[in-house]
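Slack export, channel: ligand-projects

TW: morning all. Re-posting the request from yesterday since it got buried. We need the structure predicted with the small molecule present, not the apo form. The ligand is flavin-adenine dinucleotide; the SMILES is in the block with the sequence. No rush, but it would help planning for next week.
GE: picking it up
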Amino acid sequence: MAEFSLDLTDGQRELRDWVHGFAAGAVRPAGAEWDAREETPWPLIQEAAKIGLYGFEFLATCWADPSGLSLPIASEELFWGDAGIAMSILGTGLAVAAIYGSGTPEQLLEWVPLCFGDVDEPTVAAFCSTEPGAGSDVAAISTRARYDEARDEWVLSGQKAFATNGGIAAVHVVTASVDPALGARGQAAFVVPPGTPGLVAGPKLRKLGLRASHTADVFLDEVRVPGRCLLGGREALQERLARARAALAQAGSGLAQAGSGAGATGGQAALRTFELTRPTVGAQALGIARAAYEYALAYAKERVQFGKPIVEHQAVAFALADMCTEIDAARLLVWRAAWMGRNNRTFAAGEGSMSKLKAGEVAVAVTEKAVQLLGGAGYVRDHPVERWYRDAKIYTIFEGTSEIQRLVVARAISGARLR
Ligand SMILES: Cc1cc2nc3c(=O)[nH]c(=O)nc-3n(C[C@H](O)[C@H](O)[C@H](O)COP(=O)(O)OP(=O)(O)OC[C@H]3O[C@@H](n4cnc5c(N)ncnc54)[C@H](O)[C@@H]3O)c2cc1C
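GE: finished. pasting the full token output, ligand included:
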């Protein structure tokens, strides 16, 4: 167990400075171009792979940090550079976290290298949980997984929505219902290996922000994957299903007990991944917020109106003070949750969700304020704040909307069965 300290270690400082160097030198200068192109920035993914920022070793080194702070620190820096490009680089981590969290060591060894490819030919991975009828309510997924005993294959059918890297990924991790009668507890996660027939990509969605990052639906039509693609293995699944069936029989009354309902009670496989990743997602939002705050501060020192730099107008200075305070407050929540997660603390008050809630809302508020402080200049593409404003909004929506984060926290602190 690591003592919680706000003094970064030498290693953490080196990591921060190294990622910041890449973000400042390669990512920030390319942000506007890839936002306008709305294409996956493969050359930058390759650059990241070359320096060791894209690959399992990087993630594993971060995860190994006993304080849990390395991944939030690295994420904040990379997203400070540009969120769309950073998501293209770190988006693969969501699928990898699912394999890491639910898979066996053999599955980790087999599938994770395929998620990243190699320096000459990097690949990306996708984690597909959301469906057209199941967003916040992850327990409602209707993608089905049927086991074909004779061929030791799982057969997946359904539609996944809004998947980051969906359809362009080498490896797709797909959640599916094995036993719909068990609601969320009847779900499992499957690896769909590269080139598997039946997996069809929907068109790339055109988005408000994060435009460099690929988002698309994925269609699964009788997709056959080998038995070993079930994350965690069949034995573990059968034990889990047996426990869920016993609990259901005992409860007698059924589905509500088995976990149907809004996000926080939803699919175990998906939720486990979300719990592992929520503070890191908050850190991404922080990176955007900090970029906007720094830019607005510098602008306010330069821009002269009424005979003095606008930062000398108290209303402007106070706005900047609030932005800085809110960013620091959010970072403390993110770091606390990351430390708690790494040190197996119970999230008794939903601290992981709290951190993502706060950081997401701070990113939206701070980027909006940055646009305001730049005036007309904030509204045009000559300055990056309009892009950061568009990018920030996703942080109150994905990985659980702000309402769902509040639901998790509210349930945790009240014990009430809120939906
Ligand atoms: C750019 C982008 C990338 C994404 N990447 C991925 C990915 O890689 N993998 C993946 O699986 N998904 C991904 N998603 C999906 C994302 O996680 C969902 O969009 C999100 O969870 C919300 O689901 P929804 O869009 O269906 O909204 P809905 O669930 O339909 O919500 C609509 C509104 O209702 C509110 N609401 C719903 N239920 C409640 C409730 N119980 N109480 C109060 N309010 C409620 C919500 O907060 C929201 O305001 C991505 C989405 C986007 C836009």
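GE: first-pass observations. The mean pLDDT is 93. Strands lie at 125-128, 144-148, 153-164, 171-177, 187-192, 199-204, 215-226, 304-305, 308-309.
TW: perfect, thank you
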